[in-house]
Design a protein that fits this description.
Homodimer. InterPro entries: FAD/NAD-bd_sf (IPR036188), FAD/NAD-binding_dom (IPR023753), Fd--NADP_Rdtase_type_2 (IPR022890), Ferredoxin-NADP_redctase_2 (IPR050097). The chain is of the alpha/beta class. It has 7 helices and 22 strands. It folds into 2 domains: 216 residues, FAD/NAD(P)-binding domain (3-Layer(bba) Sandwich); 121 residues, FAD/NAD(P)-binding domain, CATH 3.50.50.60. Strands 1, 2, 5, 6, 7, 8 and 21 form a 7-stranded mixed beta sheet that branches. The chain is elongated. Bound molecules: flavin-adenine dinucleotide.
Amino acid sequence: MANHDIFDVTIIGGGPAGLYSAFYSGLRGMKTKIIEFQPRLGGKLHVYPEKMIWDVGGQTPIRCEQLITQLVEQGLTFDPTVCLDEKVESMAKNEEGLFVLAGASGEVHYSKSVIVAVGGGILKPQKLQIEGAERFEVANLNYTVKTLERFRGSTVLISGGGNSAVDWANELEPIAEKVYVVHRKSEMAGHEAQVRQLLESRAECLLDSAITRLVASDAGDRVELVEVMNQVTGERRMLPVDQLVINHGYERDASLLENSPLDLETKDEFYLKGTPASETSVPGVFAAGDILQHDGKLNLIAGTFTDAANAVNKAKKFIEPDAANIAMVSSHNDAFNSRNQALKKQAMR
Ligand SMILES: Cc1cc2nc3c(=O)[nH]c(=O)nc-3n(C[C@H](O)[C@H](O)[C@H](O)COP(=O)(O)OP(=O)(O)OC[C@H]3O[C@@H](n4cnc5c(N)ncnc54)[C@H](O)[C@@H]3O)c2cc1C
């Protein structure tokens, strides 16, 4: 036990809630670790990096990708320990009162307090159910639209009919050579205005249809033709494509809370039932972001920041009962003295 590094707070999840928690716990002088399943920080924002975000206070419209960069930079201000590619499989408490987090890597993480910031859990895109499809993933089979530029001047086939599929089709339509949208139902399921925009655009929507076959290029690494079958008429079409985008929703891995032998009260069998001050039913375990549920909960990026600051303040009091309830505001906080001087020097250059 003595060989293990013990953290004041361990944050599970590196999305907006986890990153702001890391910033704020650093501000409160806590020894902080952040554990993220994905190979990068930023959370669910990586699902929509090209979208413009308008509803984060103090940010004029900002590309989500830029917001990720800023959130990460702020989250790392106080140099927390960051473990990427690590899934926390369970949380328990040992006889010494420490939280013990079991990582899928085999590593065990020890902490005096925990902030659960896992959002909607681990999201994995539903894969295209065609044998051998995975071999095209490096070349032109995509599960997200990371940059619009990748699709400029291309013939793109999007499979899916929900909000994201409709959104991507609308964004790609003006820059792509041709956009096909293949959806297995007879109507698109996205927001009404966006569906109308799509139906009135140059994009061709193939409803009641599904992908039945992929034909590879001569080199075998790219999809060249996609066979689409109308499930009502049985008609099959072979469509030449440059890029294929699959948006069939996400599988959600919510096993963390199920596997944890702590008396954590949940809501709708997944969310952590908590207080507006980010406390859960287990002392020492706090929650922030989309995973936290209470009557006043705001499921926005902006809401994650308040949750995070509350969670950190409560965690600080949990491990140091005599600590102040909240941190000194940043404009008067000594933690920034040397950084402010460096910034001033930089501005004078
Ligand atoms: C398409 C789309 C558009 C959106 N647009 C907006 C918008 O314009 N404005 C707005 O305010 N909000 C928007 N949202 C909502 C916003 O993205 C979420 O509210 C926000 O990401 C929640 O942040 P979070 O940190 O709680 O969770 P997440 O961003 O989901 O991050 C949670 C992180 O925890 C990790 N994790 C989960 N389980 C484990 C585990 N066991 N071990 C280790 N790591 C784990 C996940 O990999 C993930 O990185 C949008 C959401 C979507 C899907």
